[in-house]
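TASK: fixed-backbone design
INPUT:
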């Protein structure tokens, strides 16, 4: 355990020293992964399939605020949808505009959560992000998470009913396509199930990890895992909502692993040294529970050359 704590401190020191380089690299890798995943998952527009486009866009995102990744992600999705249907592109563009106006204009710092959920949704493992969001963000984080699930649902519907929406093969006119698409969104049971599971899981994890109990983060992660697993599996077996069970299991395992890593780096405390303090002023009594953080310093290694020491001793004789 001591070795892991020393390693954590070394990571923190390294990050603090080189964060000006680490952050752009991480943003570039994250953005590139998202753009390539969306292109591989859709790929409707040939021009947007050029590998040079994701690389240039990711390079631009590396030096822009994190909300830029979400913006470019939405643009890329619209480009691919445009190759399928102009009408569907207009509907999704309007929904994206509502998202940005309702939330991201006022709280752009968490915009990356939407992109992370979209990425997880492309790989059918949204639980990986959902289980960890409540540990590091507040209750408003459910908004970008739900937006990400909705966006994944938008793309999935087009892929499922491609022949219905495609301008070259569909027998529906523009208005009929829009009506059919909106009805599909409202009746998409899988997306509705994931929305409900995400909403409840994120809020429960956030509420439990704020409790004044021992191992609050671990308990919150356990509660979130149980609730999310129960809701998704219940939707699959009881309400006959088709979900990919192996992908759900993988997402839960990855979500627990990510949550454990976040707890280790962000909330490593020593409950054995918990102290309870009471004091007062003219108006209130205060009862404070103080739990010290676990912190270690990098051990100083001193190397002594035995050969040189022996030679010095012989010279003195």
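OUTPUT:
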């Amino acid at each position: 355990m001591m070795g892991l704590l020393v390693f954590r401190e070394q990571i923190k020191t390294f990050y603090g020293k080189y964060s000006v380089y680490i952050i752009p690299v991480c943003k570039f890798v994250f953005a590139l992964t998202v753009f390539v995943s969306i292109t591989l998952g859709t790929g409707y527009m040939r021009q947007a399939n050029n590998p040079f486009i994701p690389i240039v866009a990711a390079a631009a995102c590396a030096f822009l605020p994190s909300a830029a990744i979400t913006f470019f992600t939405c643009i890329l999705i619209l480009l691919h949808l445009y190759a399928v249907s102009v009408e569907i592109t207009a509907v999704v563009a309007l929904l994206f505009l509502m998202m940005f106006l309702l939330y991201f204009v006022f709280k752009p710092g968490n915009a990356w959560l939407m992109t992370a959920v979209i990425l997880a949704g492309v790989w059918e493992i949204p639980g990986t992000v959902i289980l960890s969001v409540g540990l590091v963000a507040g209750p408003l984080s459910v908004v970008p998470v739900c937006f990400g699930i909705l966006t994944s649902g938008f793309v999935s519907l087009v892929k499922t009913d491609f022949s219905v929406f495609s301008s070259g093969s569909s027998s529906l006119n523009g208005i009929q396509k829009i009506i059919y698409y909106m009805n599909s969104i409202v009746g998409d049971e899988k997306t509705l199930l994931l929305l409900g599971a995400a909403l409840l899981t994120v809020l429960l994890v956030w509420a439990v990890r704020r409790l004044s109990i021992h191992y609050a983060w671990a308990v919150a992660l356990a509660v979130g895992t149980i609730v999310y697993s129960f809701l998704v599996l219940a939707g699959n077996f009881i309400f006959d909502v088709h979900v990919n069970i192996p992908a759900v299991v993988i997402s839960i395992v990855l979500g627990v692993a990510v949550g454990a890593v976040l707890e280790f780096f962000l909330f490593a405390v020593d409950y054995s040294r918990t102290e309870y303090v009471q004091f007062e002023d003219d108006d209130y009594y205060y009862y404070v529970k103080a739990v010290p953080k676990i912190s270690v310093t990098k051990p100083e290694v001193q190397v002594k050359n035995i050969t040189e020491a022996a030679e010095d001793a012989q010279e003195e004789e």
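COMMENT: Strands lie at 275-280, 285-290.
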